[in-house]
Amino acid sequence: MEDIVVVDNLHKTYGKNVIAVDGISFTVKKGEIFGFLGPNGAGKSTTIKILTTLLEKTSGKATIDGLDIDADQVKVRRIIGYSSQEVGVDDDLTARENLMLQCSFHHIPTEKAKAKVNGLLQTIRLSEAADRRLKTFSGGMRKRLDLASSLVSDPKILFLDEPTTGLDPQSRQDIWEYIVKLNREGMTIFLTTQYMEEADRLANRLCIVDQGKIVAEGTPAELKAQVGADKITLRFKIDDHEGCEKAKELLSKLQGIEAVGKCGDGIAAENGLTIITKNGSGLVTQVVRALDGAGINVEQLNLSAPTLDEVFLKLTGKTLNVVERKQTTGGWGRRRR
User: Fold this and answer.
1) Same structural domain for residues 248 and 155?
2) Could you tell me which residues come within 8 angstroms of residue 261 by beta carbon, excluding any fewer than 6 positions away?
């Protein structure tokens, strides 16, 4: 696939000592969902603001669909859509009025704008609420409208900066479905997120970023393969320490098991046991048969594949700590170009 975003040795420094983006390079392919995963302060929002021409870079180069983000700013803005972390819709207007206002910023003729707005309202399932003022909307409804606002110009690539932060699980699921729908229709999506599940479920490829640097890049499956092991976790009755120790001794002898933890290292620090293996799904049957043959009773058995958080932990020595932030409101001026 052809590259639509090319970033080469991008730097952003504030003052003399604060390095927000530290020499990153990556590409985004046309038609993919590209994820930028990392904790707060990793440089994700700074990068996306530079690419959308809202922030001036310190050095490096970046192009979008062959257009230089510095030399061709006006042309770049015509082919991108952008939705920031803060919802940028006007609460004093209705949903329809908000979208019509965005159309006017892009000089779309009135009749064409009306048709476009009706289509967008239907797509985001807000047709019935189209003429209600936004102050009556839930956070999820407002966020869906905010995303629709970034689509009135029919962008080639949509930049989404943490689009589900602060949303409840159902609203988050709605946004995910909307993003997938847009991508299936051919739109390239650039997504920043601090949620592992979001990156895992949505991104075709992703970069994991930390402290302004890219620490890993690839598909979610490729990145998780770097951890190199599945986990089988067993839980025994709380007073069955003898059973746990017998299981540990027995399972340590099975072929294909790399390591068996200490009893008590299982689920929620209860009377459990964790097994590390490269082929968890293939080994589960062996484990069950061995325990059953020895008359060892197990209350619960779980098989889990490596997570992106474990990838991040392996690469950086720390986990991705997500701190929820409430949705904030804002005016519509940020999209005025």
Assistant:
1) no
2) 273, 274, 275, 276
From edge to edge, which strands make up the β-sheet containing 18-29?
A: 18-29, 3-14, 59-64, 67-68
Token readout for 143 is 């966020």
Confidence at residue 231, expressed as pLDDT on a 0 to 100 scale: 84
183 plus 243 within the same structural domain: no
| Average pLDDT over all residues of the chain | 87
| Domain assignment present for 330 | no
User: CB–CB of 303/231 below 8 Å?
Assistant: yes
Residue 336 lies in a domain: no
Q: Is 236 exposed, middle or buried (0-12, 13-18, 19+ CB in 10 A)?
A: buried
CATH number at residue 263: 3.30.70.100
**Helix (H) or strand (E) segment spanning residue 32:** none
Report if residue 129 sits inside a domain. Answer: yes
Question: What's the pLDDT at 127?
Answer: 92
Q: Domain containing 194: what range?
A: 3-219
- Cα 227 from Cα 221, distance rounded (Å): 10
Determine contact, residues 98/145, Cβ cutoff 8 Å.
Answer: yes
